[in-house]
Automatic annotation (TrEMBL):
Keyword Glycosyltransferase in record: no
Lineage: Bacteria, Bacillati, Actinomycetota, Actinomycetes, Streptosporangiales
Function (record text): Repressor of the lactose catabolism operon. Galactose-6-phosphate is the inducer.
Domain annotation HTH deoR-type: ranges: 3-58
Keywords annotated in UniProt: DNA-binding, Repressor, Transcription, Transcription regulation
Keyword DNA-binding carried by entry: yes
InterPro entries: Carb_Metab_HTH_regulators (IPR050313), DeoR-like_C (IPR014036), DeoR_HTH (IPR001034), NagB/RpiA_transferase-like (IPR037171), WH-like_DNA-bd_sf (IPR036388), WH_DNA-bd_sf (IPR036390)
GO molecular function, one term: DNA binding
Protein's recorded name: Lactose phosphotransferase system repressor
Length: 251
């Protein structure tokens, strides 16, 4: 087994069990303790695990919110595929909304020029600024440096007077039990307002988000029209999500 395959398996186990143990991993994979520690260090650098005494815990269990840069450095091929498929959901003309996120950021890089784009992401706004034929609308408000998203009353007031054809949303977690969630309540408020302002809602979420729940829920699954995820999704999960209403696209 290659290191990348082993690390992916370790991460999946950590997310399933809530914790992984160095000794148990070394035994199960028939490798040395030092090899496991290197794997855990690599996963921690990617921002998906946090090392603890004797093992590691997935960041979701700690309520830890990775930075945008940390999230953008993981699951890169999957996010590229999701963003490419999401182009099929972009209207030929009109207005769309891009929620702050690493996968929505990749969609921004591929958008056709002649659209009105509303976003609360400074990062996405900078990507779109050089495009003279894109009508860019940046929501104001308090800036959260960790996610580069604007939040609170200024953003909420603008969204009350906004209506778009499609909102492309991001989430830290999505589950059949609790819907779409994020660690921060201020971002959750803005995300709820984004969903209300859209004719259609498309969630862009790689498979590591599915099955995770975070502190602040901002949507139920029946409020989402389409979920685009990747082929790493566990067997049966696409059907479970689709049973609540959204069309699930696996790429």
């Amino acid at each position: 087994m290659y290191a990348e395959e082993r690390q992916r398996s370790i991460l999946e186990r950590a997310r399933k069990d809530g914790r992984v143990d160095v000794a148990r991993l070394a035994s199960d994979f028939d490798v040395t303790y030092e090899t496991v520690r290197r794997d855990l260090t690599a996963l921690e650098r990617h921002g998906v695990l946090r090392r603890v005494h004797g093992g590691a815990i997935p960041v979701e269990r700690l309520g830890f919110e990775p930075t945008l840069a940390q999230r953008d450095s993981v699951m890169t091929p999957e996010k590229e595929r999701i963003a490419k498929r999401a182009l099929e959901e972009v209207p030929a003309e009109g207005a769309i909304l891009l929620d702050a996120g690493s996968t929505t950021g990749r969609l921004a890089e591929q958008l056709p020029a002649e659209l009105t784009v509303v976003t609360n992401s400074v990062s996405i706004a900078l990507t779109l600024t050089p495009r003279a034929h894109t009508n860019l609308m940046l929501l104001g408000g308090r800036l959260r440096p960790r996610t580069q998203a604007t939040v609170e009353s200024w953003a909420l007031q603008a969204l009350e007077e906004t209506f778009v054809d499609v909102a492309f949303m991001a989430a830290n977690g999505v589950s059949t039990e609790h819907g779409l969630s994020t660690p921060d309540t201020a971002e959750a408020q803005v995300k709820r307002a984004m969903i209300r302002s859209a004719r259609r809602v498309v969630l862009l979420a790689d498979h590591t988000k599915v099955g995770n729940d975070h502190f602040a829920r901002f949507s139920t699954l029946d409020q989402v029209d389409c979920i685009i995820t990747d082929s790493g999704l566990a067997d049966g999960l696409a059907d479970e999500l689709a049973a609540f209403g959204p069309r699930v696209v696996v790429v």
